[in-house]
Amino acid sequence: MSPGAQAPAEGLPADIAPSQRPASATYASMVRRLSSPAALWVGAGWGFAEALLFFIVPDVWLGLVALCAPRRMPITLVAIAAGAAAGAAILYLATLQLGEGLSDVIVALPGISAADLDLVRAELAAEGPIAFLGGILQAVPVKVYIHASALDGIGLPEAVVFTVANRIERLLVFGITMALVGWLGRPLVARWPRTSVVAYVVAWTIFYAGFLLASGT
Q1: Using CA atoms, how far apart are residues 97 and 3, in angstroms rounded to an integer?
Q2: Angle 191-194-200 (CA atoms, 0-180°, nearest 5)?
Q3: pLDDT tens figures, 185-208
Q4: Does the pLDDT value for residue 13 go beyond 80?
Q5: How many angstroms separate the CA atoms of 87 and 113, rounded?
């Protein structure tokens, strides 16, 4: 190392290029945590919960990872999809056991109505499991498709495979967008990491406050 060269910061995450060294230890720590195996488990758990009864979409976690550690976006998306597959299997099996009785629970969730379930059942009857891929255009949660599949005789393997396809279809565009924001906005995020995260969380909080008000919850 030449006399004037600066030694790299110890423990600096590999996600940060030498020309993009963080302006603060807070940012470096944030990137390190969002690049950890634990962060993948959070994504998988979130995907699992949202495929069941949790109503906050895993986009929230994926976007945060993509904003602060863009290179981790693809593997985080895979973790979310894997969790959703497990959640789909549980919901499908629960529907086989509880039948229409579980429908009351599903349609009572924020943003879901009995009309949504009727619509999804009609789509599945007409198109088969490929109807899962149209849910993103109608903003119908994937759990409605999983539940309806079990009610109407679509097989568990098909329900799980198309749940994964639905998750990837839904999350990929948002993940890429946030990763681009993370790369292009790296100097600002690195300089004001806490402010960036707070702004991100506030934006989602406002979104869900409006969502809950609109759904009458």
Answers
A1: 71
A2: 110
A3: 999 999 999 999 999 999 999 999
A4: no
A5: 21
